[in-house]
Amino acid sequence: EIGMGLTGFGVFFLFFGMILFFDKALLAIGNVLFVAGLSFVIGLERTFRFFFQKHKMKATGFFLGGVLIVLIGWPLIGMILEIYGFFLLFRGFFPVVIGFIRRVPVLGYLLNLPGISSLVDKVGESNNMV
Predict the structure, then answer these.
(1) How many CA atoms, within 13 angstroms, populate the side-chain half-sphere of residue 48?
(2) Which of 62, 73, 91, 115 is the most buried (most CB within 10 A)?
(3) Under DSSP, is residue 115 helix (H, G, I), strand (E, B) or coil?
(4) What is 30-77 written as a DSSP string?
(5) Distance between CA atoms of 21 and 100, rounded to whole angstroms?
(6) What is the pLDDT of residues 89-128, one digit of tens each?
(7) Given pLDDT bands bounded at 50, 70 and 90, which one contains residue 27?
(8) pLDDT tens for residues 28-68?
(9) CA 55, 38, 35, 32: dihedral to nearest 10 degrees?
């Protein structure tokens, strides 16, 4: 429960920090809360194993490097690196997430619109499960 709360607050602070024109303090707090919450949810050892698998080292480098750059004080560059690293790290989960969202009544309808459907199909066809 604590981990989900920390992760949720982390995502909230990251989102709010981006809305407020990449506010350094909010993004730094969001990054720390997100990583701490993830560690609480799945455990320290599993978090370490997830981030430091051999085939995920590039993605981990971008993600954690982005966190470090945000903490240093360059939020725009740091967030770009973080987002790229996040997509590389979690691309195996995208087909599952898209399949779930397609079953939600309103969101599923939006994802099945002609222009959006082909884009979502392209993102959701990743075969790399974590």
Answers:
(1) 3
(2) 62
(3) helix
(4) HHHHHHHHHHHHH-HHHHHHHHT-GGGHHHHHHHHHHHHHHHHT-HHH
(5) 31
(6) 988 888 888 888 888 888 888 888 888 888 888 877 755 5
(7) very high
(8) 999 999 989 989 999 999 989 989 999 999 999 999 999 99
(9) 180
Token digits of residue 99? 């399949």
Position of tokens 């979690």?
Answer: 90
Spatial separation of the C-alpha atoms in residues 92 and 128, rounded to whole Å: 5
- The amino acid sitting at 3 is G
Q: Report CA-CA distances (Å) from 92 to 2, 33, 47, 76, 99.
A: 25, 23, 16, 26, 13
Structure tokens at 66: 């982005």
DSSP state of 91: G
Q: pLDDT tier at 130 (50, 70, 90 boundaries)? A: very low
